[in-house]
Backbone:
C-alpha cells in the first residue's frame, strides 16, 4: 500500500514537472529561439508531421469503396507524411499481402506511422489475458512485416468487481511481456488513452513507470482524457507528451467541446516533441461534427498549417 501511494505521489510530482516543460507558459514564443546551425540543441527542435489513420476512412473501407492500397494512394493525393494502418481493414495477413502494402508505400514515399489493433489488456480471467497477449504478439509480428515501428494497443474497460489497481497491474504485466517480444524487432508499443481505465494521465504515467521500458509508451489521443478535480484535459495531455508516440488528432473532445488545436501544438512544440500528428476523424453528428466528406479535409488543412507553424520541418 505504501509503495503504491509513494508511486502515485511521484507521478503527480513528475506530471507537474512535465507540465512546466510541455507548455504551462502558453504566452511564451515557441520559435523565437529555434536553434541555429551553429547553436543546435536537438532536444528543443520539434518535428511535427502530418499523418492520417485509416480509421478516418472507415466508411469507405468497411463498405468496399476503398482498399488499404487506395488508402496509401490517398496519402499521396492528400500530401500526408505518413499513414496509420488500422488492422480492422486489412484484407488478410497472408504471405505477400502485407509485403505488397509495404512495397506500395515505399514506392510512393509514404511512411507507416504505425499499426493500430484492438487488443485490450484488461481482463479479469488469466486465460483471457494470455489470449490477449498472444493476439498482441501476433500484431507485433504483422507490424514488423509491414516495416512499421509502432503498434497501438488498448487497456480496456474495468470489469465488474475489479479494482483500478488490479486493472493497472494487468496492463503493466501485459505490456512488459509484449514489450519483450517487440523490443528485438525495434517496435514500440503505444498504450492509447482510450475509453476505459486509461482515460487518466495518472494511470497512463503509472503504467509507464512500472513497465519501465523504452518500448512501452503512450499512443496519445488528445480527445479522451476525463477532466479531474486537479487536471483538465489539456494538463493531462501535457503531462503525457514526454511519453507520446503517435498522436491521434481530432478537433473535439468526447463531450463535443471544441479542442484548441493551436494550444495543443504549442505544448508539443515547447516539449520538443518529434512525431506524427495522425488525424483520426469521427464525423460524429451527435457532438456537432461534420460528415467526413466535408469535415476531414478541413481538419487536414488545420493540422498541416499547425505542423508548419510549430515544427522545424
Residues:
Amino acid at each position: 500500500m505504501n509503495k503504491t501511494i509513494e508511486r502515485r505521489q511521484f507521478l503527480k510530482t513528475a506530471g507537474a514537472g512535465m507540465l512546466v516543460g510541455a507548455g504551462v507558459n502558453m504566452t511564451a514564443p515557441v520559435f523565437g529561439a529555434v536553434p541555429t546551425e551553429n547553436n543546435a540543441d536537438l532536444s528543443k527542435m520539434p518535428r511535427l508531421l502530418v499523418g492520417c489513420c485509416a480509421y478516418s476512412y472507415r466508411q469507405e473501407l468497411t463498405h468496399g469503396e476503398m482498399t488499404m492500397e487506395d488508402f496509401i494512394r490517398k496519402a499521396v493525393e492528400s500530401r500526408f507524411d505518413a499513414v496509420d494502418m488500422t488492422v480492422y481493414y486489412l484484407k488478410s495477413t497472408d504471405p505477400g499481402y502485407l509485403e505488397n502494402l509495404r512495397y506500395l508505400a515505399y514506392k510512393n514515399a509514404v511512411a507507416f506511422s504505425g499499426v493500430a489493433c484492438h487488443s485490450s489488456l484488461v481482463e479479469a480471467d488469466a486465460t483471457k489475458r494470455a489470449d490477449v497477449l498472444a493476439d498482441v504478439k501476433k500484431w507485433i509480428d504483422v507490424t514488423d512485416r509491414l516495416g512499421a515501428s509502432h503498434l497501438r494497443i488498448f487497456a480496456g474497460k474495468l470489469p465488474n468487481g475489479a479494482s483500478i489497481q488490479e486493472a493497472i497491474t494487468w496492463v503493466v504485466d501485459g505490456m512488459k511481456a509484449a514489450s519483450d517480444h517487440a523490443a528485438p524487432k525495434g517496435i514500440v508499443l503505444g498504450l492509447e488513452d482510450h475509453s476505459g481505465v486509461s482515460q487518466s494521465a495518472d494511470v497512463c504515467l503509472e503504467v509507464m513507470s512500472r513497465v519501465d521500458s523504452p518500448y512501452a509508451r503512450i499512443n496519445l489521443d488528445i480527445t479522451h482524457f476525463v477532466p479531474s478535480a486537479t487536471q483538465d484535459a489539456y494538463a493531462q495531455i501535457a503531462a503525457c507528451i514526454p511519453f507520446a508516440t503517435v498522436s491521434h488528432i481530432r478537433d473535439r473532445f468526447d463531450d463535443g467541446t471544441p479542442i484548441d488545436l493551436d494550444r495543443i501544438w504549442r505544448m508539443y512544440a515547447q516539449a520538443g516533441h518529434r512525431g506524427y500528428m495522425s488525424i483520426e476523424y469521427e464525423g460524429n453528428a451527435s457532438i456537432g461534427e461534420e460528415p467526413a466528406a466535408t469535415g476531414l479535409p478541413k481538419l487536414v488543412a488545420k493540422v498541416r498549417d499547425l505542423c508548419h507553424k510549430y515544427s522545424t520541418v
About this structure: The longest helix spans residues 2-22. The mean pLDDT is 89.
